[in-house]
Predict the structure.
Amino acid sequence: MQVYILHRLFQALVVCLGISLITFGLLHVVGNPVLLLLPQDASDKDVALLKEKLGLDRPLWIQYLAFLKDAARGDFGQSLFTQESAFGLILERMPATLELTLAGMLVGLGIAIPLGVISAIRRGSITDRLCTVGAVAGQAMPIFWLGIMLIILFAVKFRVLPASGRGTVWHLILPAITLGAYLAPLTMRLTRSGMLDVLTQDYIRTARAKGVVEGVVLFKHALRNAAIPIVTILGVQFGRLLGGAVVTETVFAWPGVASLAVKAIRTYDYPVVQGSVVLLALLIVVANLLADVAITYLDPRIRLGKAHG
Amino acid sequence: MGSLRRLRFLAVGSGIVLLAVAAAVLAPWLSPHDPYLQTIGDRLIPPVWDAGGSWRHPLGTDPLGRDLLSRIIYGARVSISAGALAVAVAMTLGVLMGLLAGYYGGGVDTVIDNLVNIMLAYPFLLLALAAIAVLGPSFGNMIVVLGLTGWPVYTRVVRAETLKYREREFVQAARALGLGSPRIIRVHVLPNLANTVIVMASLEVARMIILESFLSFLGLGIQPPTPSWGAMLGEGRVYMLTSWWLAAFPGAAIFVTTLGINLFGDGLRDVLDPYRVLTPAAARAE
């Protein structure tokens, strides 16, 4: 088990390095920060001066190593516009993103897991069919459109909820629904298929045969085993969820890391772009890692048996 | 799930996809107005069933007095071609990498597998956004970026399938007969993966259309005045307090199209691959 976790940690480290390399390469090799920062008629002397000031005149690999060294200490440089520490700016907005992601996840799972379980138990019923149709439709839904429609409906027409910003719990409702609607369809389908797999297993029949109450059979015997694929997916879905957060934060002007990153990308504030992308990726890596550890815990076959995976 | 009902999904899905493709191809004949024609006197006319609407502009007009219906019909061209081209790029790259990793294994596999892990952990949308910001927004750049960021999905699945086939008797036999690896891959492995890849690719078209729309929505994709659903939705967002139809209809066009593609892809999977079980590994790839 320790070996397995160490192996996964090493993998996570490789992933982090790779992400930092791609981000750095994209911004410094493909793009040229200096040309975008200066007016078009800037003289060569100005260009050279700014390069020197930003340390961009050094060889690329030295710049990359310096970037890595600083990043490891949480120093991503300063925003080119506000001169504030990029890491500080990102950290300041992290709670908003976590709040939104968590709320979205709660809404998504709160819809998906009960519906998935019910669909599996009542396979082929009207409820099951409605859920399947709903999931298929939900998977096709562009959530930025859903968000705008929710704003038009609840903020403009009925005037019951705020259209944008963050502050009260009312501000959280529409963004959380939007993000939850992004997560729910796939999670529901997986819960349903996971439950269906489990419900045909021998141990379920045994539990029923020895007279265990149906509720206990479903929640203790079935759902706990069906949880393994769900948790796997959730870990992987966290990346999708952050992608959804990019969209949701943009639509609702939610002051989180993702909207900061989008703004920084558009203004070419590369220290902020580097910092936020690397930190968001780090979050994804950690979430995947946690999901893997959670699975080893949930699945005794992995925990006790094939521990070196 | 009843196979008959699945077939119905397939039929409805194909119907919607055909309709969208027809709209894209026949746009000049179908649209009631020139999508670029600005009539300042006809600004922000609501759809026909709202007070002040008229049959001249069934879905209303935009702030420049352009006919919304015509722009949505023309918008199908951008979305469908962008979705299909981005998938073509991603699929080619992804399948190639998957075959290499699965068939050759060893160092090649380690490198590709790590690359896939990196790409899957990368916040996809931010990567695409950053790349577009660096390269500059244009249709071509968007295809390249979507293609280059969308390949790992295929690689994961193709690699796993190739690993499986590599050990099968018919591949071993081909190798024993002295066939070269490229030929074995082409003749004996690839055809066996075709169904899986076709199903994945058809579903990915929907995802790429949504991504393209989002990029255009942010102003980083298709540039005005070219009508694209995403850009129209972005424009509509500015007017959402007063003119709901500007955002509602282009978004509905995206939704219906991606729904059609998903129904088609799901149905196709049941026809081409009836024994496929949704394993966590396969689901990861989705």
Chain A has a mean pLDDT of 85. Chain A touches chain B through 56 residues (CB under 8 Å). DSSP finds 13 helices and no strands in chain A. Residues 214-251 of chain A form the longest helix (38 residues).
